[in-house]
Inverse folding.
């Protein structure tokens, strides 16, 4: 089994378009599992028109208070580093659950044993099939902030079902934050998807820096390529000892298919698939 990550420092570069297209291309010859790890905003199922079925609810542990025991010492509010507890000494603490990351510091700190554990639902894991590939995605509930629990639950599900596949493709979130790092872990190669703009150039630098630090081999994919506009990305690629591995053109046909949920078919996608095979 080979794990490949499709990533990019910037949102809106067409990372999901590339991930779904390569998954479908590889799926013609191999058993492929596409993992949508952008849990804040999963959209691969929409691009592929795959109907998802929920397979798991994701919970996060959170503290709960027994105010009969609470002496209003204020220590839990002092301890919480993410300001999830409000309550100075002499006042009953008020808990703001959206910020809580379940670290447990308040439970350990409370001298009156007034805090114990409860849990809340923060996300869901879905599965589906379509275009000859298996599909799995995680989704963080609206108004929840701690996405890492959903990414971890997604990775646990992938571990359970991944053995039967030749290729597992992780479509990561955009950026270089913890969820992206978690989704990149275990990949033998990453595709850094970018676009020919100054923002694309800047964010490509960031993602290349991260991939180098993680020791993950990578190739650069330039999306929405137009003749003469590639210089910017070529320059930053060369300064990192790389060349653009594949260029997906900016075309009306691709955009039309994109809006209809038809995966991109183009020689540039075939080239990337061959590269990672
Ligand atoms: S640390 Fe415990 S006793 Fe002190 S305010 Fe918090 S809940 Fe109450
Ligand atoms: S579990 Fe951690 S983050 Fe949550 S309220 Fe307690 S100290 Fe704050």
């Amino acid at each position: 089994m080979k794990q490949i990550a499709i990533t990019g420092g910037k949102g809106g570069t067409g990372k999901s378009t590339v991930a779904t297209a390569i998954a479908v291309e590889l799926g013609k010859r191999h058993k492929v599992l596409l993992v949508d790890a952008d849990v804040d905003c999963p959209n691969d199922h929409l691009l592929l028109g795959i109907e998802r079925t929920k397979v798991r609810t994701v919970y996060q542990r959170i503290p709960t208070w027994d105010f009969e025991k609470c002496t209003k010492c204020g220590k839990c509010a002092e301890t919480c580093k993410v300001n999830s507890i409000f309550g100075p000494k002499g006042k009953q603490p008020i808990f703001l659950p959206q910020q809580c990351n379940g670290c447990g510091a308040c439970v350990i700190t409370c001298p009156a044993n007034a805090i114990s554990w409860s849990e809340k639902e923060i996300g869901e894991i879905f599965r589906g099939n379509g275009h000859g590939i298996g599909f799995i995605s995680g989704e963080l509930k609206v108004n929840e902030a701690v996405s890492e629990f959903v990414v971890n639950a997604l990775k646990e599900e992938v571990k359970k079902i991944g053995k039967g596949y030749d290729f597992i493709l992780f479509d990561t979130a955009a950026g270089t934050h913890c969820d992206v790092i978690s989704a990149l872990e275990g990949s033998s190669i990453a595709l850094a998807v970018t676009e020919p703009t100054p923002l694309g150039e800047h964010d490509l630098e960031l993602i290349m820096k991260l991939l180098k630090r993680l020791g993950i081999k990578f190739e650069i994919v330039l999306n929405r390529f137009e003749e003469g506009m590639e210089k910017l990305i070529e320059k930053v690629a060369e300064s990192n000892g790389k060349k653009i591995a594949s260029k997906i053109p900016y075309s009306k046909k691709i955009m039309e298919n994109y809006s209809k949920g038809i995966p991109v078919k183009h020689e540039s996608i075939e080239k990337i698939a061959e590269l990672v095979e």
